[in-house]
Design brief:
Elements (H helix, E strand, L loop, with lengths): L3 E5 L1 H5 L9 H14 L3 E5 L7 H12 L7 E7 L2 H10 L5 E7 L2 H6 L7 H17 L4 E7 L6 H13 L4 E6 L6 H15 L3 E5 L6 H14 L4 E5 L13 H10 L18 H12 L20 H9 L34 H12 L9 H18 L5 H9 L1 H7 L8
Parallel strand pairs: 1-2, 1-8, 2-3, 3-4, 4-5, 5-6, 6-7, 7-8
Helix pairs in contact: 2-11, 3-16, 4-6, 6-7, 7-8, 8-9, 9-10, 15-16
The protein binds zinc ion.
């Protein structure tokens, strides 16, 4: 029986959301947290976009160092052979790719303006897959963008051609959030049965069904005899109404009636990291977590009405489906209410040392010499310039621990190619 794997696309779909973004250190921290959580793969960026190059290479180096292991780092681009070539020129060490092209009649007439037909779409995709394989990609996924408005017949043809050219997965994109759980189940099952590849389920929330559709789609893929890969983003942040929320998908897969215990995750996931990653994404994107967000919202375990409060005090199972501890909640959070020393772009060495001592304890900070502390502080200054907000503790520790990686992440050199 097939299993469910998570491919998180926060660092691609999430960061291409209008009005939002992450700096390269924040994107790196997302990969670190996703890895700690046990997420199978992070779609970590755009290899053909030049300001991503240093970040992508630095993260591949972290993977080599064992810091970003076992998570897979995969880059996303258009299914165009030229893009694949650019990708390998800018990020030669990359091993996993997803290649995307629109497949629906709407896009063929409305976007390609009749200049391309279905055969052209297949040809472009196949050439891109061939190029990726020839240049050393270990796994290639192909994305049928606007898949939910594409005929099943063409999706099967598209996926079959991809498989014959060595693609590892077909991504079915409900790009506009048009599916319902009923339709996506049928389509996903048919694709698994007829294409003979594992299928990725990529859903959006335009009709409020991204998580439900993801779970139904995954069930369809598994019932069709293949592994299912659900695409998520942290806090559901993504284009327009967003993507399937990572934590909500994990809760649904493991806890939903008739699902948990029957359909299983393929890699071990640590749900107790949910609180931390959701909080970090909220801070980094500058988007508050909705009060009623599943699992991580401020009210997810709050009870006020007499009947509920009485019930939950007698036995939490009366009114809670799962415990807050499972998600890593419940630790007291210290908020400074008196004097506060911060460090950042205009900070000096004594303030920096004070902050690092607060985080790590007096004994824990061992800079080899004053120069090393100065160098790390200089990196912290630059990181603060790019983030435009104070670094969180984990970021400060990351910069102190991996100064050379941080230097690469903070390096932006426009027009030097
Ligand atoms: Zn998307």
């Amino acid at each position: 029986m097939g299993k469910i794997y998570i491919i998180d696309v926060t660092n691609r779909d999430g960061v291409q959301t209008a009005k939002l973004g992450l700096c390269k250190l924040e994107k790196t921290m997302m990969n670190v947290y996703l890895n700690e959580m046990g997420v199978f793969q992070s779609e970590f960026g755009f290899p053909t976009t030049r300001h991503e190059s240093h970040y992508l290479r630095a993260n591949l180096e972290l993977a080599k160092m064992g810091v970003l292991q076992p998570i897979r780092l995969e880059g996303w681009m258009r299914a165009i052979a030229e893009d694949v070539e650019t990708c390998f020129r800018l990020v030669p060490e990359i091993k996993h790719l997803n290649l995307s092209i629109s497949t629906s009649d709407q896009m063929i007439t409305g976007k390609f303006l009749g200049k391309k037909n279905q055969q052209d779409i297949v040809n472009m995709m196949v050439e891109a897959v061939d190029a990726a394989r020839a240049l050393g990609a270990e796994t290639v996924g192909v994305n049928a963008e606007d898949g939910s408005r594409t005929s099943l017949e063409f999706l099967v043809r598209f996926g079959t051609e991809a498989r014959e050219h060595g693609a590892a997965r077909l991504r079915y994109c409900d790009s506009l959030g048009y599916d319902s759980p009923f339709t996506i189940y049928e389509t996903a099952r048919a694709l698994a049965e007829n294409v003979g590849l594992p299928v990725e389920i990529h859903c959006h929330g335009d009709l409020g069904m991204a998580v439900a559709n993801s779970v139904a789609g995954a069930k369809g893929v598994i019932d069709g005899g293949q592994d299912a890969y659900i695409n998520t983003t942290v806090n559901g942040i993504g284009e327009r109404a967003g993507n399937a929320d990572l934590v909500a998908v994990l809760l649904a897969v493991t806890k939903a009636k008739g699902f948990g215990g029957k359909y299983q995750l393929g890699s071990e996931m640590d749900l107790s990291k949910s609180w931390r990653i959701a909080r970090f994404a909220s801070y980094a994107f500058g988007v508050p977590i909705p009060i009623n967000q599943p699992g991580v919202g401020a009210n997810a375990f709050a009870h006020a009405s007499g009947i509920h409060a009485d019930g939950v005090l007698k036995d939490p199972d009366n009114y809670e489906l799962y415990g807050f501890e499972e998600l890593g909640r419940g630790e007291p959070e210290l908020v400074e209410t008196g004097r506060e020393i911060c460090t950042g772009r205009y900070g000096g060495i004594s303030g920096f040392r004070h902050v690092m001592n607060e985080i790590m304890g007096e004994e824990a900070v061992h800079f080899n010499d004053p120069d090393e502390a100065e160098r790390v502080l200089e990196l912290v200054r630059y990181a603060n310039v790019l983030a435009q907000k104070p670094l969180v503790e984990d970021e400060l520790l990351f910069v102190a621990k991996y100064p050379e990686i941080a230097r690469q992440l903070l390096t932006t050199t426009p027009l030097d190619y």
